[in-house]
């Protein structure tokens, strides 16, 4: 009897821990071979046949199609440079340099990867349309309410994700070093 | 005391097995992956433009809204596929995914170097059965081997500004994928 109870408890515990670990890794989006520059992280291998089992499981579960390495590379930011969570009720600035690429786009999503509805139908910028100053630099303001310049509306969502995609870029194809940078800096300005 | 420790150790080992096997089984068990989502919307071996990524109910998460996207959900069991994708003015790319969303090949307009991207997609077996003499013209023919019998070809055309989205969509409207007619010898 005692043996039976112990076996049942062990099996239950094993199932709970095993499934819990799977759920945790898949919802957090664990993947190997990441490349981090500042607040930005990319997983270039996820866009190739060398994708690891965790990334494979994650994309099957979410239904996403990763960007192929021959196409480009996607950098994800869920916090600013100081580690503050990207909160749609706060104001963030994104500015600085981008690595070499023929085109880039920056897009704002909610935590599940959906676009955030807003009145001006603005979900991001491309390298061709962004407004630059005389020196060719740009600054993006992510805020719930309208701002002058490159305003990216965050719609006041609790948490948002910024995705910086570089198209036709040598990054991620040839090497996995983090010296490839720089990536734009993200800083929190104020919270309403 | 030792007995409890042993049971716990056993539980942890089993937990590891449960964890690894569920992670590995996920791609085959998932019914919300990109292929399954697109299977509900797209006929097989036809290029279908996807609706704009805007709004809450996008076909797939994390789509780039700056791109017009068209998908060919292919099935090679009837023979090799010929893909033709005209280039838009800005940036066009074609990415090949297996049945389980693994991107196994991607090419962009600069690598293609012409006015359109033309590719032949086939399985390794079909490639072996290709007639020898056709290799003479192999330089003009880009052959891609698909690791799986079915999968997705995703054609993306960039609209550098929102006003150019219509142009990008028009470029994709000319894209085609169809089963190659068996060469009559």
Task: List its traits.
heterodimer; A: Jelly Rolls; 2 domains; six-stranded antiparallel β-sheet; four-stranded mixed β-sheet; B: 185 residues; Jelly Rolls; 30% strand; globular
Explain this structure.
The complex is a heterodimer of chains A (192) and B (185). With 192 residues, chain A is an alpha+beta fold. Chain A has 2 domains: 1-29; 31-191, Jelly Rolls (Sandwich), CATH 2.60.120. Chain A has 2 helices and 10 strands, in the order αββαββββββββ. Chain A has helices at 2-28, 53-62; strands at 35-37, 40-42, 72-77, 90-95, 103-110, 124-126, 139-143, 150-153, 160-167, 185-191. In chain A, the strands form 2 sheets. A 6-stranded antiparallel β-sheet of chain A has the order 1-2-3-9-5-6, with no helix packed on it. In chain A, strand 1 (35-37) and strand 2 (40-42) form a beta hairpin. The radius of gyration of chain A is 20 Å and the shape is globular. Chain A starts with a helix and ends with a strand. The mean pLDDT of chain A is 87. Chain B has 2 domains: 1-29; 34-179, Jelly Rolls. Chain B is globular and about 75 Å long. Chain B starts with a helix and ends in a 6-residue tail after the last strand. In chain B, 41% of the residues are buried. The mean pLDDT of chain B is 86. The longest helix of chain B is centred in the N-terminal third of the chain and has 28 residues, at 2-29. In chain B, strand 4 and strand 5 form a beta hairpin. Chain B has 185 residues and is an alpha+beta fold. Chain B contains 5 helices and 9 strands, in the order H-H-E-E-E-E-E-H-E-H-E-E-H-E. Chains A and B meet through helix 1, helix 2, strand 5 and strand 9 of A and helix 1, helix 2, strand 4, strand 5 and strand 8 of B.
